[in-house]
Structure formats: C-alpha cells, structure tokens
Amino acid sequence: MNIFRPVFLSFMLLGGGFAITPPDSGYDRPILDSSTWERIPGDLVWNFGNMYQPCVRQVEDKEYPWRMWFFGWAHEDCNPGVPGCDSIYLARSRDLKAWEIYSGENRWDAEMQPEKWAPVLAADDKEYGSWHVGDPSVVIRNGQYFMAYSSTSKPGFRAMKNHNDGMILCVMGATSEDGIHWTRTQQPLLIEADNMLHAATEEGYTGDFHRPSLMWDEGKWRLWFDYWHPTRGVCMGYAENLGEFTDLEGFRILNAGQDALIYNWPNPEVIRANGKYYSYADPNGYPPRVGDKNAGWTSRALCEAESEDGIHWKINGFITPDTDSAACHVPQATLIEQDGKPFIYLFYATQRGGDPVFDYRYSRIRMIRRPVISR
C-alpha cells in the first residue's frame, strides 16, 4: 500500500482559476487564532509528581456530576508500593473547577495531597500489562463504564534495537459499574501481529499501538489510537468493533501501518460535536523559541483537526501554549452544553521545564474551552 493516503484536494476559486490546497505534510502547520479559546483561570489538579491525560466525563450524580480519569506518578516517580510504574487515578468535581481525588475506600482528597491518592487501575501480571497503565479514555453507556487504555510490558521485553526500551505496547480494555472498580478484558483490544511482535529489526516495522480515544458512535465502537511508523513517526490509526466491547478480537484495525489517518499526531483525542469530528493531539512543529535546546519538548503543542467522518482529516492548526509553562501536552476533550450552547472543553497538562536541567514531568492539569463553531 502506498505510504501516502489518497489525496482529497480542496479547491478555492481565485480569479477564474483554482488553487489547490496541498495535503498535510505532518509539519509546517498554521497557528490558530487562539482568541476563540477561553482560558479558564486556575489549575484543576496539581502538586503531584508527574500526571497527565485528563479524561473528563459527566455522570449521573447530582452532588458530583463530573469525573476525571488521569494517570502517571502521584507522589514519587514510578509510584513506589504500587505494581508496575504508571497507574490510573480518579477525581470528582461539583463544578469542573474544584476537584477531589479518590484515596481508597470512599475517601477523597480535596487538599492536593498525592501521597494519599489510590489508583483505580494499576499494572498486573500479564506480560503486556506489567509496567505502564495509562492514557485512559472512558465512555459511559447504558449506565456502564467502558475504558480503553495504554498498557505495556516491562522494559527489555523485546530484542528490537533502539525501540522504546524493548517494550511491547498495546491497547487494553476494562469495564466498570462505578468508574472505580474495573474488570479488564481477557486480551488487548489492539496488539501487534506476531510477525511484528517478534521482528528482529526496525525495517518496515509499524506497531506500538497506544494512547486510545474511544467512542460509541452510530451503533458501533470506534477507536482512534497512535502508533509508530519508522519514517513518518507517531501517526494516528483507527479501528472498529461492530459487536460487544469485550468480544475477543472484536476490534478490527482499518487504518494503521502505511495507511495512517494523520502523520505526526501523537496522543490523539477525537470528539464529535454538532455532527462534525474534531481531533486534538500534541505534535511537534510549533515554532520553537530561538536557540531552545529543549525544542524536542517545547516545539510540541496542542493542535486541532476536523473531519466529516472521522477518517478524512483537515488540520486546523496549533493552539498557542500557556505563557507560564514550558509546554502544553496530552489533550482530552469533552462536549458540554452551557446556556443552550455547545462548548468543547479541552483538558491538558503543563510541563515543568526549567534551566539548566529541563524537567520533562507534568505538574498541573488545566482546561480551556471554545464554542462549537463552523470553520
């Protein structure tokens, strides 16, 4: 299959002729007019070691109608005393601004004391789930919670050179009745085929399914995710499941390998609003600060794309990062009706940064919003 997806050209009438808009190259993307985004003041969750990927959903709870699943290291690096390394945590809120974090056995911490926080999902003894558990994406349907999340083996699992510390990466699933206690699916929702799983070199390799965005849409499960391509970097792929969420091998990959939906699109999130699909990610390509030795981190920024069907995408551009942070990464979106109008709320994490030693860890979770508008 050709490395480039079919070109869907858009035309603009100019002086009797047509100007062709070239396909997205993965780089040189525009910067949006960020005045359309309202920056909500204050931090939502903070004082932690390194946490991000805030997935916010509205629930049937009059007192606390909002839940946030997020992950990482609560108090210390790699969560000492918890199986594996990264784990998924849960918070609740009355108003989207003040949050309390689950601390086990019906206890909730409102004082941002991460040493008290208890994960709701951690590593297990499965080979592909013994180290990293994170990137939660939650759908609530018919009163039940469904989660797709990233799962990895411990470093050194695979003898592939220069490839993510030799880890196998996959997308796992879990279900819950309350959003706290989860039952994992019997096997990953997405995992590499055996010929890729045991590949001896990187040549021709595409895999490392990770960072899912789950949606129940038009009578089926839809799953966007990112994966590694040896020449195009981290790309967005797509899978569907026409049956039950927990069906063995229920998710079928439709776009991956050479056939990416979007090149250079790590940490993808997809949301549907007023019949259109919007995707958010944190690709590199945002103009870095001149002479910035940490441009690998700081040239990554939140970026928006839109689509009529969730498959064919147009890149809108970058959202200007917060001025008081080294970088803004790992977006998650929620559609919220307020005063009869739909708003896209975008939740993300801010990076610590610093000089002369740059700290890659994330220290705060924040949100911005904009009305749903036609472009």
Q: Which strand-content bin applies to the residues?
A: 35-45%
CATH class categorisation: Mainly Beta
Structural class by helix and strand composition: mainly beta
Series of H and E elements: EEEEEEEEEEEEEHEEEEEEHEEEEE
Rg on CA atoms, Å? 20 Å
Shape: globular
CATH architecture descriptor name: 5 Propeller
CATH superfamily: Glycosyl hydrolase domain, family 43
Number of domains: 1
* Helix content range: under 10%
| N-to-C CA distance | 32 Å
Q: How many strands?
A: 24
Assembly classification: single chain
Query: What is the fold-level CATH name, i.e. the topology?
Result: Tachylectin-2, Chain A
Outline the low-pLDDT stretches.
1-19
- Count, helices: 2
Average per-residue pLDDT, rounded, comes to 90
Biggest pleated-sheet summary: 5 strands, antiparallel
Draw up the topology in text.
Elements: E1 10-14, E2 17-21, E3 38-39, E4 45-46, E5 50-58, E6 66-73, E7 87-93, E8 99-102, E9 108-109, E10 133-141, E11 144-152, E12 169-176, E13 182-184, H1 194-197, E14 207-217, E15 220-229, E16 233-241, E17 252-255, E18 269-273, E19 276-281, H2 295-298, E20 303-307, E21 313-318, E22 328-338, E23 341-353, E24 359-371
Antiparallel strand pairs: 1-2, 3-24, 4-24, 5-6, 6-7, 7-8, 8-9, 10-11, 11-12, 12-13, 14-15, 15-16, 16-17, 18-19, 19-20, 20-21, 22-23, 23-24
Structure description:
The chain is mainly beta. The protein has one domain (37-371): 5 Propeller (Tachylectin-2, Chain A), CATH 2.115.10. It has helices spanning 194-197, 295-298, and strands at 10-14, 17-21, 38-39, 45-46, 50-58, 66-73, 87-93, 99-102, 108-109, 133-141, 144-152, 169-176, 182-184, 207-217, 220-229, 233-241, 252-255, 269-273, 276-281, 303-307, 313-318, 328-338, 341-353, 359-371. Strand 18 (269-273) and strand 19 (276-281) form a beta hairpin. The two termini are 32 Å apart.
